[in-house]
Design brief:
This protein is an all-alpha fold. It has one domain: Hypothetical protein af1432 (Orthogonal Bundle). Helices cover 59% and strands 0% of the residues.
């Protein structure tokens, strides 16, 4: 689909599909009214508030795929550097499509802010611990609690007081929540599709981590170039083209070229597909988009098949590899043993988290404390409370 891309091709959508930035638009409204800023849109202010939040800074110390125990390289992605790569991809797509770029920037920056330490293994371990108490852990819902309550930066209110558009996008960017099962989320328009600005975050996230995880897996020696070339035609095609153009280049540099072109092909396909879907379904306004039966932001059928192929390869050869499986088991031990320790005696919690027990219950208060930790912080807590016994 992208082999002969016209450099002058327009990806523009109808201007009415973008979320308006005006203060009067209902999606710009905040839980606590604030006067307009002199020169920043509501969504630009949201992006800045997220960027300056403590929870955002903590992403630098949270695992994306490789912990410091499994990679000696300083170059493996953290949850923060992954977020910045999603930010770059998403705002590029938004600008090309004529969407609301500041809103997309805010949503990209906040999309992973609710993740606990130790990556997806940590989230699964925390969810399992909570399910024993009839609860569960969902990083989107936790992110909403962070920005509406846990962050304390303002004298007039708790949380960051983000716009409705950003709070809706936090909830809905990567999944749908049935209205009958989540009545507490009714203000977030669960019976409607999210705006395109939110929809494209999930695909930008996929594109970012698929290409990045191949690079980090190779650098860590868990993945091998010959296997990738043999099993992933999307990568192999671009690697062969790079080899033709640069026959004397090192494999490492050819790999970089192939990954760059692979990412470009995925992004271009996403934009082409969104535009094609909008035309095919006669979606010309935000109201049309909201009423659509399905999301517009997805890859074409052929590219989606290749995306799934890459993801399956990464699961089989990286995410479930013996190297990472040992770390996953360690994550389970650390998180669940600390959860049990602090649930049995919540007096061990810091005062601010102990104060939440009366309102939230002990299991949720403990889970909130754990979810906010960086990898290094929870390791130290584990050694202090459990690991040295």
């Amino acid at each position: 689909m992208t082999d002969h891309l016209d450099p002058h091709q327009s990806f523009a959508l109808p201007t009415e599909l973008a979320v308006p930035s005006s203060e009067s638009n209902f999606l710009s409204q905040r839980a606590y009214p604030e006067p307009p800023h002199a020169y920043r849109s509501p969504f630009a202010r949201d992006a800045a508030r997220i960027l300056h939040a403590k929870a955002f800074r903590r992403l630098a110390g949270k695992t994306q795929v490789f912990t410091r125990r499994t990679s000696e390289s300083d170059h493996s992605r953290s949850r923060l550097t992954h977020t910045l790569e999603v930010f770059q991809i998403a705002r590029t797509v938004a600008a090309q499509l004529g969407l609301n770029v500041p809103l997309v920037e805010a949503l990209a920056l906040v999309h992973d802010i609710g993740h606990p330490p130790f990556g997806h293994a940590g989230e699964a371990a925390l969810d399992e611990a909570l399910r024993a108490h009839g609860l569960h852990f969902d990083h989107n819902l936790h992110a909403l609690r962070i920005v509406t309550s846990f962050e304390e930066r303002y004298a007039g209110f708790r949380g960051l007081n983000l716009t409705l558009a950003v709070r809706e996008g936090i909830i809905k960017h990567s999944r749908d929540y049935p209205p009958d099962q989540f009545p507490e989320l009714s203000e977030y328009l669960l019976d409607q599709q999210p705006p395109l600005e939110a929809q494209l975050i999930d695909i930008a996230d996929e594109i970012a981590y698929l290409t990045a995880d191949l690079e980090d897996g190779l650098a860590a020696g868990v993945l091998h170039l010959a296997e990738i070339r043999d099993q992933l035609p999307l990568f192999a095609t671009f690697y062969s083209l790079a080899l033709e153009d640069h026959p004397a280049a090192e494999p490492r540099l050819l790999t970089n070229e192939a990954l760059k072109q692979m990412l470009n092909a995925l992004v271009t396909d996403l934009m082409q597909t969104i535009v094609a879907e909008a035309h095919a379904h006669h979606i010309e306004t935000l109201a049309d988009l909201r009423r659509a039966p399905l999301r517009l932001a997805h890859l074409s059928e052929s590219m989606e098949a290749q995306r799934k192929q890459v993801k399956a390869f990464l699961f089989a050869n990286l995410y479930l590899s013996p190297t990472l499986e040992a770390e996953h088991q360690h994550a389970v031990e650390v998180i669940q043993s600390l959860f049990a320790e602090w649930t049995a005696d919540p007096r061990l919690l810091p005062p601010d988290h102990l104060a939440r027990v009366a309102k939230e219950g002990t299991p949720r208060a403990v889970a909130d404390y754990i979810a906010g930790m960086t990898d290094a912080y929870i390791e130290q807590a584990w050694l202090t409370h459990v690991g040295n016994r």
